[in-house]
Amino acid sequence: VLTQEEQKKMVGEKALEFVRDGMAIGLGTGSTARYFIEGLGRMVQEGFCCTTIATSVASENLAESYGIPKTTFTETPQLDLVVDGADEIDTEFTLIKGGGGALLREKIVASISKHMVVIADSSKYVPVLGSFPLPIEIVQYGWEASFAAIQQLSCIPILRQREGKPYLTDNGNFIVDAKFSAIHDPQTLESALRHIPGVVECGLFIGFADTVILGSPDGPKVLSSNRK
Ligand code: 5RP
User: Fold this and answer.
1) Is residue 106 flagged as an active site residue?
2) Coil, helix or strand for 163?
3) In this structure, how many other beta carbons lie within 10 angstroms of the beta carbon of residue 42?
């Protein structure tokens, strides 16, 4: 039986099968995406060609340490592929992301990627979203007002903290983790959140994932969306 960490490594490395020479690739964030970036780094060191955009400062630094080439949104308006983790995945491939705080950059990168591959250990695959508190990025200014409006949506919100201070995203914003009993209608919830002044983005990713590589006790399983 594979541990959670072994599953993360296997799905991260399995995703390397989706890369092709010359591709522009989005690099996800988190402990699973790390395995993909490290694998890509080894390929680059052996002569593989690609350009990348990272979804966080942490992933950018990791990629840089392997000498993985970077590109910009100006140079590369569309990416061939993004490989990223998730906190929850439902049967429709709707995701909760942002446990690592990178949801805004992750959604921007996913939005310009032709193909999104999500990599996750088996614990992330759920029948209904919402056991994992939904990360919501809000601006610092008047955060109390945004927080109070989020609270009106039948959830228990918590302002994310790190070392006794509000957690700061790479964009200098705060994160609210909102616990819902269950998220049965992600689309409606996402649009309600988007209408709250000060909310920059939420961790619901609807219609982004094309392929999910899921860990299992006997190795990675590749699941494809029938949407595209
Ligand atoms: C970061 C994310 C991550 O992809 C998500 O939190 C999964 O992380 P991990 O692979 O460490 O479980 O959305 O914002």
Assistant:
1) yes
2) coil
3) 12
Task: Report the 10 Å Cβ neighbour count for 218.
Answer: 8
Strand partners, 202: 136
Candidate list 13, 60, 88, 106, residue with the active-site label: 106
The token duo for 89 is 């995945």
- Is ligand 1 within 6 A of the CB of residue 106? yes
Contact residues for 194 (Cβ-Cβ < 8 A; gap 6+): 202
Secondary-structure percent of the chain, ordered helix, strand, coil, rounded to 5: 30, 25, 45
The pLDDT tens digits for 78-113 are 999 999 999 999 999 999 999 999 999 999 999 999
Instruction: Give the whole-number percent of the chain exceeding pLDDT 70.
Output: 99
Q: Quickly count: other Cβ atoms within 10 Å of residue 127's Cβ.
A: 7
| Per-residue buried b or exposed e for 51-67, using 16+ beta carbons within 10 Å of the residue's own CB | bbbbbbebbbebbeeee
Q: Does residue 118 contact residue 85 with C-beta atoms inside 8 Å?
A: yes
Q: Which two tokens stand for residue 119?
A: 């990599």
HSE value, Cβ hemisphere, 13 Å, CA-based, for 132: 23
pTM for the model: 0.97
- Per-residue pLDDT tens over the stretch 199-209: 999 999 999 99
- Å from CA of 146 to ligand 1 middle: 24
